[in-house]
């Protein structure tokens, strides 16, 4: 199994919730994103460095070549967004006991939770895009309750700039 999960999204809200809410369009630095009600989530403490932002949504990346990534878009400020890589709990990159401990610390059910790795894309001297992900401080996502929290793993095996081979 690939360490990343291209289908990791929030659990769908029940049908009565979805009919009451409609998709929204949001103009961002990535273009116009479609925000689905079932992909909205709350980060009570916000991502590190962005504590004032607590309402987010996961949206598809407009570029089909990067379809394994998602955009974690602030619903409070169109200029605040992160490219993230959804990964399954059994990804082989994050130790299962660290994932379990993170879920336990936030009272998240590990069976309905996953991880988002914040990605950074840079061009090297040759113009090639180099992608790294932050495995040291992933976002734990409770899909059942549409909640997310960023954690910091203390183990030395996690890098903040883990190279990603695409």
From TrEMBL:
InterPro entries: Flagellar_assembly_factor_FliW, Flagellar_assmbl_FliW_dom_sf. Signal peptide: none annotated. Coiled coil: none annotated. GO terms for biological process: bacterial-type flagellum assembly; regulation of translation. The keyword Cytoplasm applies. Transmembrane segments: none annotated. It comes from the Bacteria. Keywords: Bacterial flagellum biogenesis, Cytoplasm, Translation regulation. PANTHER family: FLAGELLAR ASSEMBLY FACTOR FLIW. This is Flagellar assembly factor FliW. It comes from Rhodovibrio salinarum. The lineage of its organism: Bacteria, Pseudomonadati, Pseudomonadota, Alphaproteobacteria, Rhodospirillales.
């Amino acid at each position: 199994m690939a360490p990343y999960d291209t289908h990791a999204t929030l659990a769908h809200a029940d049908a009565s919730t979805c009919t009451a809410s409609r998709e929204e369009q949001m103009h961002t630095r990535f273009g116009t994103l479609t925000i689905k009600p079932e992909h909205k989530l709350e980060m009570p403490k916000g991502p590190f460095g962005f504590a004032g932002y607590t309402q987010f949504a996961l949206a598809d990346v407009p570029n089909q070549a990067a379809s394994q990534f998602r955009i974690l878009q602030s619903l409070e400020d169109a200029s605040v967004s992160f490219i993230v890589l959804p990964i399954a709990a059994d990804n082989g990159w994050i130790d299962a006991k660290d994932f379990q401990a993170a879920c336990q610390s936030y009272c998240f059910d590990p069976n309905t939770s996953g991880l988002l790795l914040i990605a950074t894309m840079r061009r090297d001297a040759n113009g090639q895009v180099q992608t790294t992900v932050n495995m040291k401080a992933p976002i734990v996502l409770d899909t059942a309750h549409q909640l997310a929290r960023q954690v910091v793993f203390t183990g030395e095996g996690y890098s903040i700039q883990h190279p990603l081979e695409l």
